[in-house]
């Protein structure tokens, strides 16, 4: 059954935002599914988040179905407020300001007060007078019948067995009876329907005669269910009998239309429904009534009001204790309150507001993530004043109401709203104050309440619009900075590819470099050994002065060759890595090419810096060896005797070697410092390890 408001055409500005949002969402989708998206998974993930935000907020605004749910413990006054808003009085005019609760209840169309608590939620919508019932799942109704039958059978036939009473207030009537105990009793509102449907009503429940005091009706002397049960020695036979009496399959009626005085007709119909009196009624899962107006308007329409199934009454059972998590077993309420178009009116009693709903507020705020990002924008607090204001130590009623509102506002602010979504700015007491109203419906409280609710619907709508605008802005920012972000993603990918490809080469060549440094003259010695003795002799005899094949030329070419052998693999690997990356289509644009070129260049410079440092070290150390280490020369000395002993010869070789280093790597010394700085800044640690190694 659909009783939703038709979609309301949004104003021009909103329409523009919504069409922008649609385009952006499509663009984001395209972006994250485009070719090469695997290369920037972080960006794609961000795009996905932005798309989800856009789509979900858009969807909310595409289907505006505002409604106002009244949530409170039983007897706080939900139904009374709704009855007053929608003007549901038997004689149209509200009762006089000095009416007692009893008079009020007798004139209200909605069942109020003790005995008027309903077994399901009641929705009030604008339209032609009508009552509709949404039926409960048959299995659920059957389970309720069975529980009732078992309870009544035990009460009649097994009175000595300890009853499981008082049952926990959260009990919804579908638990297994504990072993050894009497099955738990159903909640009174539900038992009332079950009895009605089974044709075994308790005589006192049909007339709600008790006032707001919350006192229970006097128990009936003869319980017909109990009497009937006495005739059934077998429990299962009694259960079957109750099921037979209830005739669940025959109960198919879902609609009631007015006859005679519509207002009286509606009141009677509702009372009969909640007492299970109609022969053809199912067990109601929810009741929808249509009346001329709900009293709250938005966009030229009436906003439906929902009277939710009350939370367990407070103080009636175990000395005023309230469950810490009132929504724990109320999936129905959680879903209703989660809906982004539900304005939540939390009801509080006048005595000590926001009690008894403090825990409810706390739980809602604790679970703000579950209830969605606009929870606080949809929540208001109504303090129900049943005519008590001004009776205490206050100058007048107005002062006392104000004081109660302040108290609730402080309480709301102290909950730390808005919660859960990374908000920095919490409500001030003033912010919270605009969401609290103390209402006495008999003393002109109706209009201010309507105003409060209208504002709440507007606040809720603008919150949704603001959130969509925010998502649009985020998506626009994303695309604005996408060029940079993509370039950065490319850079990160390139850097890590180079690092990955170079590090094995670094490890290997580092080993070679160490070996070389520990035995600098080995290449030279190898070179000498490769020469024919007569050639070697001529090299030495020329005393290092000839143009070719003299000793220092050999030393230098051997060192150069060794250095190249160590360094070439670095350079090759830098080239290979560049080529490999460039073969990937993702890098085949200006950005990609320049990022790779930059990184290759940076790596090449790292290698060169290493080279310079290494050469400097080699020269210094080789020079020492050449000058001081007699062993190097002693073989030559022994063999040829001449010239080698001349100290000037060694000096010339050493000097020449130094000059070689300068030629090989110009401006060696200043570069050395720069290379060291570079090493410190090198993120890969390659140069550092090269130097320190
Ligand atoms: N005298 C008086 N009684 C009120 C007023 N508002 C609510 N009540 C009584 O408080 C009780 C609230 O019950 P009800 O609205 O059924 O609470 P619900 O269980 O939350 O729906 C009823 O008996 C009302 O008559 C008021 O302004 N004046
Ligand atoms: Mg009620």
TrEMBL record:
InterPro entries per UniProt: P-loop_NTPase (IPR027417)
Residue numbers spanned by region Disordered: 154-187, 201-220
Basic and acidic residues bias (residue ranges): 154-164
Protein name: Uncharacterized protein
Organism: Sorangium cellulosum (strain So ce56)
């Amino acid at each position: 059954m659909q009783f939703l408001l038709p979609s309301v055409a949004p104003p021009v500005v909103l329409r523009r935002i919504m069409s922008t949002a649609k385009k952006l969402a499509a663009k984001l989708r395209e972006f994250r599914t485009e070719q090469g998206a695997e290369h920037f998974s972080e960006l794609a993930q961000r795009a996905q988040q932005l798309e989800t935000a856009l789509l979900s907020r858009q969807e909310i605004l595409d289907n505006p179905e505002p409604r106002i749910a009244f949530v409170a413990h039983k007897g706080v006054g939900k139904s009374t407020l709704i009855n007053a808003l929608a003007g549901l009085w038997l004689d149209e005019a509200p009762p006089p300001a000095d009416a007692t609760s009893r008079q009020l209840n007798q004139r209200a169309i909605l069942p109020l007060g003790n005995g008027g608590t309903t077994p399901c939620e009641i929705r009030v919508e604008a339209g032609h007078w009508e009552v509709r019932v949404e039926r409960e799942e048959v299995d659920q109704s059957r389970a309720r019948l069975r529980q009732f039958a078992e309870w009544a059978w035990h009460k009649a036939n097994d009175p000595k067995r300890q009853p499981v009473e008082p049952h926990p207030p959260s009990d919804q009537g579908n638990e297994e009876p504990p072993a050894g105990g009497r099955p738990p009793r159903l909640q009174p509102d539900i038992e009332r329907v079950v009895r009605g449907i089974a044709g075994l009503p308790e005589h006192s429940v049909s007339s709600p005669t008790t006032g707001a005091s919350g006192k229970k009706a006097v128990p009936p002397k003869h319980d017909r269910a109990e009497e009937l049960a006495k005739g059934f020695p077998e429990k299962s036979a009694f259960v079957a009998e109750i099921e037979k009496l209830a005739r669940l399959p025959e109960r198919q009626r879902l609609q009631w239309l007015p006859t005679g005085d519509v207002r009286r007709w509606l009141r009677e119909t509702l009372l009969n429904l909640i007492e299970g009196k109609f022969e053809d009624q199912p067990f109601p899962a929810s009741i929808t009534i249509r009346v001329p107006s709900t009293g709250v308007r938005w966009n030229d329409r009436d906003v439906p009001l929902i009277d939710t199934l009350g939370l367990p009454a407070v103080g009636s059972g175990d000395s005023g204790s309230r469950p810490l998590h009132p929504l724990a077993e109320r999936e129905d309420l959680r879903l209703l309150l989660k809906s982004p178009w539900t304005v939540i009116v939390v009801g509080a009693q006048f005595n000590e507001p926001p009690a008894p709903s403090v825990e409810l507020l706390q739980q809602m705020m604790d679970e703000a993530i579950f209830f969605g990002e606009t929870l606080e924008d949809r929540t208001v607090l109504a303090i129900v004043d049943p005519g008590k204001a001004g009776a205490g130590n206050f100058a007048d009623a107005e002062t006392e109401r104000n004081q109660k509102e302040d108290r609730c506002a402080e309480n709301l602010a102290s909950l730390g709203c808005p919660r859960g979504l990374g908000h920095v700015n919490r409500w001030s007491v003033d912010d919270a104050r605009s969401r609290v109203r103390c209402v006495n419906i008999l003393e002109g409280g109706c209009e201010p309440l309507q105003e409060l609710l209208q504002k709440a619907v507007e606040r809720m709508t603008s919150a949704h619009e603001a959130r969509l605008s925010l998502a649009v802005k985020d998506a626009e920012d994303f695309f604005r900075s996408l060029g940079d972000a993509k370039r950065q993603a490319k850079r990160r990918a390139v850097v890590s590819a180079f690092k990955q490809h170079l590090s094995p080469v670094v490890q290997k060549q580092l080993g070679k470099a160490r070996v070389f440094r520990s035995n600098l003259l080995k290449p030279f010695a190898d070179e000498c050994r490769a020469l024919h003795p007569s050639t070697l002799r001529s090299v030495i005899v020329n005393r290092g002065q000839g143009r070719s094949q003299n000793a220092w030329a050999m030393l230098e070419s051997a060192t150069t060759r060794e250095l190249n052998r160590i360094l070439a693999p670095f350079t090759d690997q830098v080239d290979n890595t560049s080529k490999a990356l460039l073969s990937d289509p993702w890098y085949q644009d200006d950005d990609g090419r320049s990022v790779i070129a930059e990184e290759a260049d940076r790596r090449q410079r790292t290698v060169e810096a290493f080279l310079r440092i290494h050469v400097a070290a080699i020269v210094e150390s080789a020079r020492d060896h050449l000058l001081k280490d007699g062993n190097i020369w002693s073989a030559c000395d022994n063999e040829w005797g001449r010239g080698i002993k001349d100290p000037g010869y060694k000096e010339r070789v050493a000097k020449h070697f130094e000059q070689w280093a300068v030629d090989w790597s110009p401006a060696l010394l200043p570069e050395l410092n720069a290379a060291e700085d570079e090493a410190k800044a090198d993120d890969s640690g390659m140069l550092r390890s090269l130097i320190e190694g």
